[in-house]
Design goal:
five-stranded antiparallel beta sheet
Amino acid sequence: MRRSAVAVILVIAILCAGSLGYFAGISRQTATLVSTKTSTTTVYERTSTYLSPISSPGLQLEITLNSTTIQYGGALSAKVALLNTLPANLTLTPNYSSIISNWEGNDFICGNAPDWGEKWALDGFAVFTGHFTAANVSSAGSQLILAPPVGFLCISRPNPHTVVMLPASDVAVAKYNVSGLPPESIQTLINASTLSCAKNVQGGTSCGDLYGALFGYWDSSGPEMSLQDANVSSPHFHLFPPGQYTIVAEDQWGNLSAFAYFQVLAPTGYKGSTTTASSGVSSVTLPCGSPGVYCGGFNITSASLTANGSYSVLRVSIQETGNSYIGSATVYVNGTVIGNPPASEYEPPGNIPLDVQPGQQAVLVLTIPNSTITIRSGMTYSVLVYGWEGPQGERASEGDQTTVNIKAA
């Protein structure tokens, strides 16, 4: 992908019920080519926090969810942290043989690599199907597999011999018995997320926490997969079926446990399997468009690409198909970003500011100098539009992409 700034003329027309507005210019912003599932439905609720008791050294586990209920096909943000509740430093000796060392192999792509663990494995988590507490978690069975079974070259690193938790925080400082390796500081905060791989615009494959959310799991007995095949379209990947789920967090020493719960709701007409829910929990259906339920998605309705001497003209019409709005976008032709490149490819917004309301159509007309990419008549080009969507009035931070192949005129 080219990283040099280029001159681009942009006209965006927003078409809706007789109104017509125009925007001009491209600002240097940020974008990502990490795909999320199209038309994902999420029920937004108040943040819920679940705490463990405080251990005798002064540690406490915290699980934070952005929702306790999502629609089937929706996504959930879940974070796990180990906290020092004391107003002073707390020095700890790590235990590398705890249960969370086993959990990590299912939660992280590099979880099974020798001497390598997420956040030094001070805290860890597992997701189970069903509703469990400390009294019956031993009967929960196997945890759900959140990381795809891929062969991945991971970086080996030494384990710290001492960890110091800073006062009243989730920040830890690791100290190593390795010459030349200085102390290292990091938060114990972990994103409990579904991991996967996806093709990036450079033509390679990115793997890891691409979506920043929990939304499904991988087959426990599936074959080792290539990076190219370990995407969420794989037959070995499954969205969470409707039902109850438990997130269990533990500290490295096995002294603390915290339990958090979320429910996946069945949509109207759902005929798939449903997980077993706890007694007394009823399920309700919240279709797309209900209060608090946002279904994002957009399509390319038409596109053309015309070579014209020293420049070319790309015209793309996109249609918002849910009840979210599109706040920004980035356009790529054969993997080359059009306009000033985003400062980052993994955070919103895109480099083209938009304000496309639910159901509206936007027409993007971009003039592309040959210094950016030379378009030749008769050749076919891949045009990718990556948009950032969200509920009206909130930051558009859910990524979605759509692609079309165009034969240049």
